[in-house]
Input
Amino acid sequence: MSDCLFCKIIAGEIPSTKVYEDDNTYAFRDINPMAKTHVLVVPKQHIPSVGEIENVPDDVLAACLRTCRRVAECEGILQSGFRVISNCGKDACQSVQHLHFHVLGGQQLSENMA
Ligand code: AMP
Output
């Protein structure tokens, strides 16, 4: 999608710090990290949010979660633990309308998820 920030990052039109990439997904460091490790995992296909995945192929969705795990492995936090979050819509404060998963870790995270 031409005016989507994350589509531009995936296309290399806007710089990012890549952590991992495969056929279906791209992972890069969040520009405003909320934890010692904060990586964003996005599908290469433009999907606005979790709220609009009804017709998205299962392999694309599975690839996103698998990439979250791979990121945790690459970042050395697979054993210590990590959190995967996807904000969807206004009440969740989603600010970029391209499906993404925050992978957070590298430190003790808060029990408070709200
Ligand atoms: P959300 O609020 O869940 O939609 O998350 C969007 C995330 O994208 C935020 O954590 C931002 O810090 C992050 N972000 C915005 N622009 C960039 C960028 N150019 N490179 C990396 N991360 C970004």
User: Anything to note?
Assistant: Residues 2 and 79 are 38 Å apart (CA to CA). The two ends are 31 Å apart (CA to CA). The helical segments are 5-11, 58-74.
